[in-house]
Design brief:
Blueprint: E1 2-6, E2 9-14, H1 17-23, E3 37-40, H2 46-56, H3 66-81, E4 87-89, E5 92-97, E6 100-105, H4 112-123, E7 127-131, E8 136-140, E9 143-147, E10 162-173, E11 178-181, H5 184-193, H6 201-217, E12 219-225, H7 229-239
Parallel strand pairs: 2-3, 6-10, 10-12
Antiparallel strand pairs: 1-2, 4-8, 5-6, 5-7, 8-9, 9-10, 11-12
Length: 242
Amino acid sequence: MGKYKIADMKILMENSGDKTEKRAEKYLYDYEGEPDFKLRIEENEFPEMYESYIEKFPYSVEEFNMQDFIHGFYGTCFAREILEHNGCVLHSSAVAVDGKAYLFSAHSGTGKSTHTSLWLEHFKDRAVIINDDKPCIREINDELYVYGTPWSGKNDISVNDKFKLKAITFICRSDENWIRETSKPEAISLFLTQSYKPRDKKHMDLLLNMIDKIFSKIKIYKMGCNISEEAAKLSYETMSRN
C-alpha cells in the first residue's frame, strides 16, 4: 500500500506497478487518516487493457511495455482526480527561476525540454526543473502553484516541491525567435490540446473552469523559437514582466 503526498494532496496508490513506485519514491508520505483520493486498479485487469491499447496504437512491446502502460494509466487517473481539487495537469516542461514557475507546453518532440534546459544553462543555480512532462497546477487560497509529479517524462526529472506560477507559453519550432500574448479563445484551444480531456461533462466543466481561472490570473503566450540561448533570454524577459 503506497501513501503519497503529491501536489499537497494525500493520495493512496495501489497496484501502480514498479515504474510508478520507483518514480514516486520522493513523494512517499506516511499520513494519518483518510486520503484525499485513491488511485487503484485491479491487477488482473491490466493484461486485457494493455493488449487493447497496443492494438490501437503502433507500439511494440519493446517500445511500450506493461509497466509503461500502467504508469501512464495512473497518470491519467491522477489528472482526472486532481480536477476535483482545484487542479489540472498540463503536458509541459516546468522550470522555476528565483522561485517562480514558467511552463512550456508543446507536442512531444517539439523541443520544450530542450528549451527549459537552456534556462538551466543560462540561469544556473537560480533555476530548477520542476517537472519535465506533466506538472500539476493547483489553485490554493486564490494563488496558482506548480508542483512536480511522478509522471515526469522519459528522463524522470521532477522535484517534490511547489512554486508560484508566473506564466505559460506554448511553443513551436521557428528559425526566428518571437513571442506574443495569446487571446483567451486561442489559449483555451492550446491548453485543451495539451491536457487530459475528460469524456464526461462534469470533469470537462471542471477543466474549463480551471483554465478560466488560470487565464484570469496569469498571462499565456505563444512562442516560436530555435535552440539558442537567445530564445531562453527572450522568453524569460517577456514572461517575467509584471
